[in-house]
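GST N-terminal domain-containing protein
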Amino acid sequence: MIKFYELVSSLNSKCFFSPNTWKTRMCLLHKGVQFETIPVTLLDVRGDLANRSNKPDIYVPAIELPDGQFIYDSFHIAEWLENTYPDQPSLFTGDGQSTNKSHLGHIMMGKNYARMIDLGLGASKPEWAVWFDLFFPQLDQLISDEKLNNYFRSDARHGPQGYQKLMSLDRQDLIRRAKMNIQPLVQILQE
């Protein structure tokens, strides 16, 4: 069975909060694939998961196949699911047709839209960093595990005085910038 590694705030928590892992969860469910959820913290990703996968740069979402192979990145996982389960509904067309029965042009268009969103909303580009900055205080409150909280608040995670800088940002300015950043997406959706 596929193992699906999903980010939690602490190992005691069942609160899965990463939007990228949610994308993968929805893809697995849409394709009707059975999977086991393995909750991991940020420390687990950099420690145990990196060691087990032999990929020091691994991040979540990640899946482990029954043969021990790891695939990570929501888009790479979606492409793997699309190729591996072509008789199930396509992830990229939205019409409910199986990948095998879908028009290739529709699949390619869906993949291009998915890439656009993945490269925009899911990237660490400066114009999208405002979303992390905006939700950082709430994310900080979700982490109840002391060891994980110490790491999350550390200079090793966010750079020198990074935690303090993130906590002191002007929320009204962040909201203004966030609204500006979604305007191109709003225009695309209105077309």
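thats it. The domain at 2-103 is CATH 3.40.30.10 (Glutaredoxin). The chain has a mean pLDDT of 81. bye
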